[in-house]
Amino acid sequence: MIKTEHLSKRYKALTAVDDVSFQVGPGEVLGFLGPNGAGKTTTMRMLAGFIAPTAGTASICGHDIGTDPLAAKASLGYLPEGAPTYGEMSVRAFLDFIADLRHLEGGRRRERLDYVIGRLQLQSVLGQTIDTLSKGFRRRVGLAQALLHDPPVLILDEPTDGLDPNQKHEVRTLIGEMASNKIIVISTHILEEVEAVCTRAIIIARGRIVADDTPAALAARSESKRLDEVFRAITV
Amino acid sequence: MRNVGIILRRELASYFATPVAYVFILFFLVLANYFTFYLGGFFERGQADLDPFFNFHPWLYLFLIPAISMRLWAEERKSGSIELLMTQPVTLWEAVLGKFFAAWIFTALALALTFPIWITVNYLGSPDNRTIIAAYIGSLLLAGGFLAIGSCMSALTRNQVIAFILGVVVCFFFLLLGFFPAMASNLPDWLQSVVAAIASLSFLNHFNSIAKGVIDLRDLLYFAMLIGFFLLATSIALDVRKAE
User: Fold this and answer.
1) Less CB within 10 Å around the terminal CB: N or C of chain A?
2) What is the interface pTM, i.e. ipTM, of the complex?
């Protein structure tokens, strides 16, 4: 369960996230939608424990991100915006490093490494330095990192950005497969992606939640039954 | 503590992932020996000790240590990998320590590779080897102090060049403090004692007294507190600015 209560983040003159409250339960795939600068990434960063909220609280699987951050982070797989990694490392060394930090050992470690490498098709680039990889491969390395410890909660900031249509399809299939027993939050600009994988969509504009519904119900709000028109109508 | 080790190993491996580490070590060894033999007059002095070698270490470190420490955090912030690291189940303090110790071990390695000069001086005469060991320890502590300052400067910016310059400036300041008493010799008495108190914060006095062969608890405590203070400042700077 992800739970946020009155989550806010203020910078000097700017309120990036303003009183955001929602809950996400197992089996839900929540799509975070909104124009650039609406506060999607800031919200995800607070959930992942990277930045502290100015006000309000959030918890991951019952672990408060402020008072018990290590337990919250342990139950979370997080793909930061832009999928940053250590560019000078090889894919193999990088995944080993993450496995170390996640305290994966023995048979389970091998099993999980084999799974993410196979699932994200990284076999061919294992020995390559991450800096030399294409954008698509780098994104997949970032996803592999987030999935490695089989966390109950996944927070993925633009997981399909920079992927070609086939790879996008592959990642959406993967999200769909994992959806039944995990809590997944993704952010995206791509509205068709929301309709393809999400069971619920939250639209956020100027730091506030302006809509929270199933993609179909949101689309039904416009005469043409198109999500992009609803999106434009409530965020512009 | 286990996480400190994991971060340390990754960091240390990343030094050697590019030729920069080897170039740095080579540069360090060439400069250290140049200073010892040309500026220090190692042969001309006709004394079997390593004073001309260790006397230049503070000045050698002034430029070389910020070159090591500049990338510690600035690079993580620039590439965004700090977000990846800080959302793993590790504490900020574990990351600060892991990176600092990796840089320190790297410096210790460069320092250890100066061993031929130790062999040379033993071949040429019979030096007091206990003094030399003490001076090596002093030099390593001095490097630790410089690195802790450099780590803090690196945490303040995303730009490695700025981190380098800030590191040199602050380290230079801590060296200069040692010259205060000499500059203030005609001040009134009470001001002299203030100056002496400030001067006791300098690297130089503490390093020199260890390099003379006396490992005093006060000098060890000085370096421990200096390193502790700047690592704490590093973690505070990161906490405030990591997401910018």
Assistant:
1) C
2) 0.92
Does B26 contact A at CB distance below 8 Å?
Answer: no
**Amino acid of residue B57:** H
Interface membership of B16 toward A (CB under 8 Å) = no
> Which of A51, A82, A93 has the CB atom closest to B80's CB atom?
A82
The 10 Å CB-count burial string (b at 16+, else e) for A115-147 is ebbebbebeebeeebbeebeebbbbbbbbbbbb
Whether residues B88 and A73 touch (CB distance < 8 A) is answered with: yes
Mind telling me how many Å the CA of A232 is from chain B's nearest CA? 30
